[in-house]
Amino acid sequence: MTRARAIAIPVIAVLAVMDLSCVDANRKWHSESVMNGVSFILYVADQKVATAFYSKVLGFSPHLNVPGMTQFNLSGGATLGLMPAAGIKRLLGESLPDPQFAAGTPRAEVYLLVDDPCAYLRRAVDAGATELSPVQPRDWGDTAGYCLDLDGHVLAFARVLGGA
Questions:
Q1: Residues 113-162 pLDDT 10s
Q2: How far apart (Å, rounded) are the C-alpha atoms in residues 144 and 4?
Q3: How confident is the model at residue 103 (pLDDT cuts 50, 70, 90)?
Q4: Which of 73, 81, 99 is nearest to 40 (CA)?
Q5: pLDDT (tens digit, 9 = 90+) per residue, 59-91?
Q6: pLDDT value, residue 108
Q7: Taking the model in full, what pTM does it have?
Q8: 28 within domain boundaries
């Protein structure tokens, strides 16, 4: 099975750079930092339930599954992460609005380019997702279908029209 490819519609992106102390004394970014990868992290109500859902939908197991973080390696070096909403609140404290107040309110989407969007959408719905729109040709040149995962995140499964 071909791994899903993520495209640039960030939900929460964690950018890996060479030097994590990337701001100098003048509060300017170091220009020599190099991006090494990207992780999209979804805040979820129940990590175990979300892990089971995404394992079924993606068709493979996570490469990391520890209390507080689950990660699935996607093609192109991208990672889809699942973090309990309470965990990010503990990590970032009061400076972050509580993500549980936004539960079920879509603010972004995870748009996955896959070999068979119908199969992925069917697996998602079979695993408990709510279908929003069937797989069909879209104005931007993809054929795509949409659903809401168990936590209300918008997922799209797409293929470039005429592509593999």
A1: 999 999 999 999 999 999 999 999 999 999 999 999 999 999 999 999 87
A2: 13
A3: low
A4: 81
A5: 999 999 999 999 999 988 899 999 998 887 777
A6: 82
A7: 0.76
A8: no
- pLDDT-based confidence at 99, cuts 50/70/90? low
Q: Is residue 29 part of a domain?
A: no
Q: How far is CA 13 from the centre of its chain?
A: 9
Q: What's the token pair of residue 127?
A: 């695993």
Regarding beta strands 35-44 and 78-84, do their DSSP bridges make them parallel or antiparallel, or are they unpaired? parallel
Please give the Cα distance from 58 to 74 (Å, whole number). 9
What is the domain-level CATH number for residue 122? 3.10.180.10
Sheet holding 109-113: strands in order across? 5-6, 109-113, 154-160, 142-148, 130-137
For residue 118, how many other CB atoms are within 10 A of its CB?
14
In a domain, 27, yes or no: no
Write the CA distances from 10 to 30, 77, 79, 102, 108, integer angstroms.
23, 15, 12, 17, 7
**Token output for 112:** 């996955």
Backbone φ and ψ of 92, nearest 5° = -105, -10
